[in-house]
Design brief:
Strand content: under 5%
Number of strands: 0
CATH superfamily: Farnesyl Diphosphate Synthase
Distance between the termini: 49 Å
GO molecular function: magnesium ion binding; terpene synthase activity
Keywords: Metal-binding
Protein name: Terpene synthase metal-binding domain-containing protein
Organism: Triticum turgidum subsp. durum
GO biological process, one term: terpenoid biosynthetic process
Structural class: mainly alpha
CATH architecture: Orthogonal Bundle
Helix content: over 70%
């Protein structure tokens, strides 16, 4: 079976697990348990893999196989995206049936408020950024690949800095206008 087929099967299994959590009103016992599924369902790994493939000759079979193992840098990108999304969409998601977010999981795990949970989750995001920097400094893989992973982390950080700009994409209008219409 090809690696990309395994990747599609993996994300489908993660989506299935999340639907099961939602239907059973299950809240994972720890943020770590939550991230075992939700970081993989964030699709960040799939995005990075497609970016790697689009880079041409620099992306060898060995590089793709490495990418499909969820190495530390890719896990960190997924964590930044997942937790960032959960923090800014938590209130909105409370209005409908949904699976427990990392915010809810953190409040349950530590017996704390949403505000306190967000502070704990920000620490996890900062640790993920430190790990990304560490991976880039040690350059065990071509810097061009590490830069692409870092760029996706930056994008996730931007998309979820103040609100869920992925879901509420109209909030990007001003930024996109400044980049492509009113550029200097």
């Amino acid at each position: 079976m090809l690696d990309w087929q395994k990747m599609v099967i993996d994300i489908a299994k993660c989506y299935h697990a999340e639907v099961k959590w939602r239907d059973e009103h299950y809240v994972p016992t720890s943020v770590e348990e939550h991230l075992q599924i939700s970081m993989r369902s964030s699709a960040c790994m799939q995005i990075i893999s497609l970016v790697f493939i689009s880079m041409g000759d620099i992306t060898t079979r060995v590089v793709l196989e490495w990418g499909f193992t969820y190495p530390k840098i890719i896990k960190c990108v997924c964590i930044i995206g997942r937790i960032g999304n959960d923090m800014v969409s938590h209130e909105r998601e409370q209005l409908s049936e949904h699976m427990a977010s990392t915010v809810q999981t953190c409040t349950k795990e530590h017996g704390i408020t949403v505000v306190e949970a967000n502070e704990k989750l920000k620490v996890i995001i900062e640790e993920a950024w430190m790990d990304i920097v560490h991976e880039c400094l040690h350059r065990e893989h071509p810097m061009a690949l590490l830069e692409k992973a870092t760029d996706l982390a930056r994008t996730m950080d931007f998309m979820y800095k103040r609100e869920d700009a992925y879901t509420l994409s109209f909030s990007l209008k001003e930024t996109l206008t400044s980049l492509y219409v009113n550029f200097i």
